[in-house]
Design goal:
Layout (H helix, E strand, L loop, with lengths): L18 H7 L8 E3 L5 E9 L22 E7 L13 H10 L1
Antiparallel strand pairs: 1-2, 2-3
Bound molecules: zinc ion.
Length: about 100
């Protein structure tokens, strides 16, 4: 379609495959779990990490000043290769690896 493939990538190049992905990426009312990182890789949050060290009873307090809301959990992200909505090919593992290393 385009006769100039050297055109700079404007904003998010993801979301051009279907309206669903576009809406998620441009969402302002919520924090999307599919997002484009600073390195230009599209990531999908596949789960929530529980980084708790197993001190469930709280008998061993490593430090008395811990914020148990900020710590203890995190999102586990994974690069998205195909659009979860329409199945369009968005990026390849090679592209993701190149971007991740080039960032
Ligand atoms: Zn799509």
């Amino acid at each position: 379609m385009s006769n100039d493939d050297k055109s700079p990538i404007k904003a998010s190049k993801f979301g051009s495959c279907c309206q669903d992905l576009k809406e998620v990426l441009e969402a302002e009312d919520f924090d999307p779990l599919v997002y484009e990182a600073e390195d230009g890789v599209l990531y999908l949050s596949v789960g929530i990490l529980d980084i708790d060290d197993g001190s469930e009873s709280g008998e061993s307090a490593a430090s008395g000043d811990d914020d148990d809301e900020a710590e203890g959990s995190g999102f586990l992200d994974h690069p998205v290769y195909f659009c979860p909505f329409c199945g369009a090919k968005l990026q390849t593992p090679e592209q993701v690896e190149a971007k991740a290393h080039d960032a």
